[in-house]
Amino acid sequence: MAEQKKQSVLFQHGTLSLLVPGLFAGTMTVGELLQHGNYGIGTVQDFNGELVVLDGHAYQVVESGAVNELSAEQSVPFATVHFDDPVAQIELTNLNKAEVERYLLEHYPFRNVFFAVKITGEFAHMHTRVVEEQQKPYPTLTEATKTQPKFNQDNIHGTLIGYYAPELFQGVAVSGYHVHFLSDDRKTIGGHILDYRLTKGQVAIQPFATLEQHFPLSNADFRNQNFNYDGMSQSINQAEK
């Protein structure tokens, strides 16, 4: 019973909204994060690239396109993870990103909850981007994402992982889908997904009964930040979608 509860929990450290004013300092170690889930996404200390957590390993895709496996001592300002335990697995073929996302919302009754999406398979095309490392004093999210290297790869096998969040939770997360990718060889292509075409893949979906929201309470910058929520949703959408 306890294990089932653990698997129905989505754990999130930080909120997407804390990135808007530029709170990019790492406030949780990777080692601690992986105690709460073996799959997930996020970003890394100094907003340095895209975080992809697969099968208990944390990978960082940096602005050059290179992929590094993160050590337990490295840290993250914002990340979301869960223990993989899908309620449904299906095979889909020859669909693009929008078609896959629409299919899941039309066929599964989860549009009002958080759910994880995992796709393992062959992609006819994958289009990603990666945020660039920032230096203190940190800029705002809007400034930091003005330049984002983009990558394209055809006929690539790998794993898509990410989440759907109801519109009610915009700011905690980005409403709608937020998904990352990493190729099977852990080096060809990865990052935040802008678009893709799926040739053939196993699609897994996992809804969550509980969102465990963890705040960086020991971080003075977070505690003292006077968040301006005017325009926050627009900043998030501009940076994340």
Automatic annotation (TrEMBL):
<dbReference type="InterPro" id="IPR005128">
    <property type="entry name" value="Acetolactate_a_deCO2ase"/>
</dbReference>
<keyword id="KW-0456">Lyase</keyword>
<comment type="similarity">
    <text>Belongs to the alpha-acetolactate decarboxylase family.</text>
</comment>
<protein>
    <recommendedName>
        <fullName>Alpha-acetolactate decarboxylase</fullName>
        <ecNumber>4.1.1.5</ecNumber>
    </recommendedName>
</protein>
<keyword id="KW-0210">Decarboxylase</keyword>
<comment type="pathway">
    <text>Polyol metabolism; (R,R)-butane-2,3-diol biosynthesis; (R,R)-butane-2,3-diol from pyruvate: step 2/3.</text>
</comment>
<dbReference type="Pfam" id="PF03306">
    <property type="entry name" value="AAL_decarboxy"/>
</dbReference>
<dbReference type="GO" id="GO:0047605">
    <property type="term" value="F:acetolactate decarboxylase activity"/>
</dbReference>
<keyword id="KW-0005">Acetoin biosynthesis</keyword>
